[in-house]
Amino acid sequence: MRTKPVQHGSTLGRIRDYFEHFAAATPARFAILIFAALVLVFTLLFSLPISTTSGKVPPFVDALFTAVSVICVTGLSTVDMASYWSPFGHVVILVGVQIGGIGVLTLASILGLVISRKLGLRQRLLAAGDSNPLRMHKGSIAEGQAVRLGEVGSLLVTVALSVLVIEFAIAALLFPRLLISGIPPLEAAWEAFYYSAMAFTNTGFQPTSNGLVPFATDYWFLSVLMLGVFLGAVGFPVIYVLMRNIRRPKKWSLHVKLTLTTTILLFILGGLAFFVLELGNTKTFASMDFGQQVFQPFFLSMMTRSGGFNTIDIAELNGSSLLVADMLMFIGGGSASTAGGIKVTTLAILFLAAFAEARGREGMEAFDRRIPGDVLRLGVSVVLWGATTVATSSILLLQISGASLDFVLFEVISAFATSGLSTGLTASVSDAGVYVLAATMFLGRVGTVTLAAALAASTSRQLFKRAEERPIVG
Which domain of life is it from (predicted)? Predict the structure, then answer.
């Protein structure tokens, strides 16, 4: 017997019923609505005089751009974040990146779990969709995934605990180094946690105007930041599996294996590429000692994945290095992570499909597992939507700014992939260009699959097949 949903008589109850029905029926559109609402709320918070050090109301374009950058955990800014915003403003920034980094739907599910002490089917479906784009795209499906529907409750607890444990652990590793540099204990504790949160959420904002200058050659400080960025970029489903089976790799899911393998491979290849391409550039790495010449390219490789921290002037990189950085940023990090981009698993799927085609095989296989064809179709859709967004934004920004293509493309991809690295164009472009970059950040964070699912009014099943004909490809 099917029971009807409880109808509340009050206006507030009817509004709650409507939003609950809307969230369950169209989770993709619900995600976009929540992100847009959060951007509006944080724009209002940043527009308060108490949010700025000057005590004046900031220009709307700066408040809006900062709100989008914070909620989308991007790290780009139109102002000097450290000196422009007051202590209250920095607290708002810290709260915002935590919300954006964890994911609105996941955070909502955690709060619901804490309040009700149980997770209903509706909340499980929403959280499963947030951790797996395939669920968002096609609803609840039965094939093995990185996180199954029945495990979502455990995943949410893992998300909450991992955020607290990892951020406090990273802060604890940074704190002594800040004390040694002469920073007072309370200020050092604040900066340590600030750096930790910005590393784990892959945002890249910094608490001081001079940024990483005092630690630009500090192996310990930079290595800890890289660790925080890596943990945030691999994704919560991967952390969940590793926490349960860290010593039993055979029990790792295909998603975990693909994410870790591709992430580590890109990190190594990116570091080697920057090392070779910047060998003769005295404005970046060539003027450093040999140890730094080896270390700094790998630090940059990790940061381009979505970290956002930098120890050199990005604008001084060679054009070839900028292109490599563009590719790394566009790929981004792991699915259901704080990183942006098209995700490393998407790249892995495309390469597996190319290898299968080269070998004359019909299906894709990896780590003794067969990958269904709908995953490839989804991967292609993600890449096409991402490339379309980047191309459109680049054309608009080229017309608005008149800057060179390499700088414009770098800035747009950094916004789309929520990387946060900048050549300086974001801070100097006109208001129209700022709005373009803000829209690009929003589209990149909401996700190409989520946006595509939201635009699709309905999914229909075709009960017949048309005659087959093969067009010429290639």
Answer: Bacteria
